[in-house]
């Protein structure tokens, strides 16, 4: 009989998953994915189970990476909660399998994996696509992704100013108190965005919050929210004017309201830029539309498990 899977907690994932290890693994797997060698990376489109009664969704995200022999599946629930709800918006678990025997080796917290790997992928997009001189970072939203993005962006880059905007000013003020360095709390999206070189959108908005008319020409936007085909964070002007990069063409064309409803065309996947088969047009305004991928969770889970084994 198979051994029982090990359980790896949120705290352990937080301790074991470090950006320095994670970023090269993500770059490598994004590059592999964009080669479209179906025997190398298998990642079906995310299956979504709508939970209409609760204004929520369950996403199923399996992936197999042959070269590294990683088989994993994340299950993530996400809800549009009202403002005063104390319940979390996202919760996830990742199952890591033994691909040869088919048994589950580990069940681990996937919420921290989701927070860290998403932010790390946005940091990769910024490394590749942001303008050469970047001084101002702007974060729209002040939730979990805002914090993980702040952490990796301040670790990887140095900005003269970091701005945050949130629908409720007190949440933005709380964010500014919680993080390590100085943050300018902005009263409007326009105030936060104007003059920013890198803009991160990490909101639960269903309608555009970021308008193209406020965005400095040449800025880079990492658009992380709006992961349903009828949800938006960015307006048509921005989507149509910018050079649009995505994590997966199939994912973005199926799930991203910003892409589907604006009719914007996708210029490249991040993996194609990593592979050198598509250029990074840093001199132009760029949008990286992130939806999240099972392969990102799979490499993260493997890193966590390998470290856990060496430290147990
Ligand atoms: N691309 C990817 O791989 C992933 C994307 N996400 C998305 O990132 C976004 C942020 O996620 P979390 O930080 O975990 O959520 P969270 O619930 O911790 O934070 C959400 C933030 O959005 C704000 N917000 C809610 N409704 C809004 C509205 N109508 N207009 C403007 N702001 C609004 C909230 O005030 C809060 O600041 C979500 O859209 C989520 O689905 C999450 C995980 C992975
Ligand atoms: O990749 C992911 O885990 C998610 N993307 C949008 C909601 C959750």
What would you say this structure looks like, in words?
With 312 residues, the chain is of the alpha/beta class. Helices cover 36% and strands 24% of the residues. The chain contains 11 helices and 15 strands. Helix 2 (19-34) packs across helix 3, helix 2 (19-34) packs antiparallel against helix 11 (294-311) and helix 3 (111-129) crosses helix 11 (294-311). The longest helix has 19 residues, at 111-129. It is globular and about 55 Å long. 3,4-dihydro-2H-pyrrolium-5-carboxylate is lined by residues 59, 76, 78, 90, 114, 227, 291-292. InterPro entries: NAD(P)-bd_dom_sf, ODC_Mu_crystall, ODC_N. Homodimer. Binds the thyroid hormone triiodothyronine (T3); T3 binding inhibits enzymatic activity. One of its GO terms (cellular component) is cytoplasm. GO terms for molecular function: pyrroline-2-carboxylate reductase activity; thiomorpholine-carboxylate dehydrogenase activity; thyroid hormone binding.
Tell me the layout of helices and strands.
Elements (H helix, E strand, L loop, with lengths): L5 E3 L1 H7 L2 H16 L6 E2 L4 E5 L4 E10 L4 E10 L10 E8 L6 E6 L1 H19 L6 E5 L3 H13 L4 E5 L3 H10 L5 E2 L3 H5 L4 E4 L18 E4 L12 H6 L1 E4 L2 H7 L1 H4 L5 E4 H6 L10 E4 L4 H18 L1
Helix pairs in contact: 2-3, 2-11, 3-4, 3-11
The structure holds 1,4-dihydronicotinamide adenine dinucleotide and 3,4-dihydro-2H-pyrrolium-5-carboxylate.
1,4-dihydronicotinamide adenine dinucleotide (NAI) binds next to helix 3 and helix 4.
Strand percent estimate: 15-25%
Spatial separation of the terminal alpha carbons: 23 Å
Helix- and strand-based class? alpha/beta
Estimated helix fraction: 25-40%
Strand order of the largest sheet: 10-9-8-11-12-15-13-14
Rg from alpha-carbon coordinates: 19 Å
